[in-house]
Amino acid sequence: MATAKKVAAKAAPKKPVKREQTFDMPVEVRDWIEQASSRLKTLQSKVERLETENKELKSYKAWAQHKILGTSAE
């Protein structure tokens, strides 16, 4: 009978955990970033509202042209 050699399982080497560096920023800079983020959100919502309004106006324009051209031909 052949004897099987037992090999000790090697543990994977542990990698050092790298902590994310954090930096303190002046309050003015943090406030400026918050204001800029707020403005971006406001402007983005305004853009979305105007895009929706533009689609509605284009739809109305097509309907009005059809109605005007359709009744003027009669």
Task: Please characterize this protein's 3D structure.
The protein has 74 residues and is an all-alpha fold. The protein has one helix and no strands. It is elongated and about 100 Å long. The mean pLDDT is 84.
The average pLDDT score comes to 84
Beta-strand residue percentage: under 5%
> What global shape is seen?
elongated
Largest sheet: none
Structural class designation: mainly alpha
Oligomer designation: single chain
Radius of gyration: 34 Å
Total beta-strand segments: 0
Key traits:
single chain; 74 residues; mainly alpha; 1 helix; 62% helix
How is the secondary structure organized here?
Elements (H helix, E strand, L loop, with lengths): L26 H46 L2
Short précis:
The chain has 74 residues and is mostly helical. The chain is built from one helix and no strands.
